[in-house]
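seq:
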Amino acid sequence: MKVLKKSMLLLSLLLLLIPFTLSQEEFKYFREIDTTGIREPVWVELDSSILDLSESFGNDILIICTNQEIPFHQEMKTGLVSLPVKQITASSEQPNARGKTFSPKNMLDDNSQSYYQNEFSEDPSQTTIVIKFDTFYTLKSLAFDYLTPPEKFTVYAYINGQYQQAGETIKNNMDLHSLKTNTLRIVFEHSGSIQISKVRIIGESFGRVLFEPISDLTRMYYGSPNYVQPNYNTDHLQTTIETQTLETSYPYLNPLFTGDVDGGVEDNCP
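struct:
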């Protein structure tokens, strides 16, 4: 009877290990996540490029720590917050009048009464605005709030050392189809002055994951065997109670997917 109980116990343990083994083999890469200091549940944000490569069992992300799945809850949201703009310039600008400015920077504030206006004598039919970010972002969409709209606008993205056309529209918004860039050049066509009160540049979607801490180190598997190389850089993903954001410690890409060059304990991905 004792032998039978032991056999049943071993069989149960094996059955518990099978889903872990199979699910782990579905993924080509894994990343060590340094969660030192977290002793309570914490929300972290993962961008869609990681989430898209991490899907398993529906939308669940496989997260393993010492051969145990980490309890977590995933909540999908859309990145509705505009990305931070480092610099915005225009080919012309209406001069200040009665203490009022018409700078392109007015498009970045939350004041609906302030706006950008071109100088018609310098740009009678076409005005160019250049928007620069502090780093490369994957962009989802672009939208403007007009007081006096243009006839249409065309977007050019700085990719691989040159500007490439991303599209044109007569609307006030455009889908950027997840292009990755650090600079946008928008050319407005018009027959008079244009007035723009707001610009919103939305990054890709992200998911929020609630981690229940088990130890100081967790592991996230991602990338199905069909993926040769992820389309983003991840080095040593880490999060702290202060930031509550999963982020890379420094930029690096290991194209060979080998070694431990980034300081991770056992990770094998770039």
